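Suppose you are handed only these lines of text.
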Amino acid sequence: MTDTRENDPNKFNDTPNIDAPAIDMPITDPVPEPFAVKFASRVERLPPYMFGRINNLLYQKRRAGDDVIDMGMGNPSDPPEQVVIDKLMTAATDPTNHGYSKSNGIANLRREVTKKYERKYGVTLDPEHEVISCLGSKEGFSHMCLALMGPGDTAMIPSPYFPVHMYGVILASGNVVSLDVADPDLFLRNVAYTCEHMAPRPKILIVNYPHNPSSAVIEPDFFVEVVRLAKRYGFLVIHDFAYADVAFDGYKPPSFLSAKGAKDVGVEFTTMSKGYNMAGWRVGFCAGNADMIRGLGTIKGYYDYGMFQAIQIAAIVALRDTEEAVEKQSLIYQGRRDALVSGLRRLGWTVNPPKAGMFVWAEIPEPWKSAMSTMDFAMKLLEEGNVAVSPGSGFGQGGEGFLRMSLVENEQRLRQAVRQISKCLSSPPAIVKA
Ligand SMILES: Cc1ncc(COP(=O)(O)O)c(C=O)c1O
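From them, the structure of the protein bound to pyridoxal-5'-phosphate can be written out as follows.
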């Protein structure tokens, strides 16, 4: 290549003059900014954890040796059936069970899920395309949100809400419209109204019956109407059926999938955490619409390698052989419900006994309700009464004025909790809340 500036007298004039004063040179090294981790905006959008104050105090009290009666989390305290534990142990000694498993779950486990659906709800499912295993239903639910939602998409959710119903959508960059869950007919009317008036229309309806935290329940007709509305307005349905196996007084929680046409529009999540006492095992399922299941499978294929195979094998035994124990466990919760509800009623509280689920949803009595926030009331019960409960406000504004009391302690301790609550509330407050 020829140098076109060969005879140019200014050819070297753009060479820096090293003798010139270094006007812009810093005299000392700059003070480094303190090192900080900046989270993604999706994390910045999350509110402070509402149960943090309660959990911190609970932890401190336990460390100090206080005997706190814990009605906070819905974390079952009874063990799974011995045959299930035995199967886990033998499966764990088999060297072939320790590699990566299939992210959508082994075929025999998915087949066992379809058998339970057939037996319990008369629902026929294809185990290959219409069922997927999850690392607990919460994992499956959040990844389903990631598969379906994005910026500009809206989900209708119940109010008050189980936190992942709100934040699974938010983490997937979606928006949320929350609808009062207490009256099922009103809830459905609000779904129709929202679809009529919102543009673009909501993409998803999230439902959860028996409901956490409010314990609201529905009858099968509810899901017939949900399917009709879904087809009319073109939204998808996710039913969180976590409390499918915990019901009282002969009430049978209906499966969304037993409504005609449900598989055309949605899916249902179930779990072994509650009825089977296997919360720490992390076994859940999603069943229904094959396209939605495929979408969840795609996300899961990138994020996880499935559940430890020994757990899956033991879960098959639990589903196949321990149905009776699941029914007995419901009776245990029913006895605890009766002990707690009758105790609270004796204190003058207005409480409806739940027909299903693991919680009593109790309105805070006056004058306390008008005198302080739900959070402060829950903190008072813990601080002065050694009783931990979940303040309803932890489940959104719709839960203000209520407490969620879980039924994981035994009857005797629940009665003791009522006595401690009574003592703690013996001097009513002057009403001061703004
Ligand atoms: C309504 C609801 N959905 C899902 C879950 C999570 O269940 P899993 O243990 O299967 O993730 C819970 C647990 O408390 C729940 O209450």
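What can we learn from it? The CA atoms of residues 29 and 261 lie 70 Å apart. The first strand starts at residue 69 and ends at 71.
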